[in-house]
Model the fold of this input.
Amino acid sequence: MNKKLLLLVLALAFAALPALASAGEYELHCEGAAECVGEITGGPFSMISDSGEVFTCSAVGGSIRFASTSTTGTVNLHLTGCREHATFFTFQCNSAGAAAGTTSLVGLTYHLINLVHGGTTPGVKFTNISATFECTGFSKKTFTGSLIGHLESASCNTATTTHSVNFEESAITGSQKYTQTTTTGAETDLITNNDAGGSYTTMAIISTWTIHWDHNVKITC
Done:
């Protein structure tokens, strides 16, 4: 095979590889639909900062929309029963204008990713996170950044109507277990300020959620 033909064959071979091989992202296929809609349920929900501050919510609810063959979707989350645990009183916390103990996160982007380099470990990354917790008589905290979790019930190329998303803390307090796509990408974290204007610290989320899809979905790995 001459050099030009060899280069052409190699170019075609690489072009045939799925985009996720380089980007570390997977596609979600909705069987029989152009878009899948899902309901999110879960809880409890714990947030632990690297300084040891703890916030909890009793339950997580929400919705997700995902266009078929896309790598990203849109998520709205609704947290209830939220409290701080830095004081004896464990004051309720809420976003501005919401009922006591209630926080909403709207318009998050949900990315389907591969968590481990050289393997196929489906995960999710939430971006566009921006939320403020106002805790009565205690403090005001703003959370920004990204959050990565493990799709622990998901199998590649297998149809299902549910996905289980698990968020874990690493061995380091206030640090998420997964902070990179394919364990080689840029590190990402959830950041919180300290009492509305102080120093910024990292924040780990501990929770398990279930996504209930309205159609069979399949992750292409």
Residues 3-16 form the longest helix (14 residues). The first strand starts at residue 27 and ends at 30. The mean pLDDT is 86. Residues 24-220 form one domain.
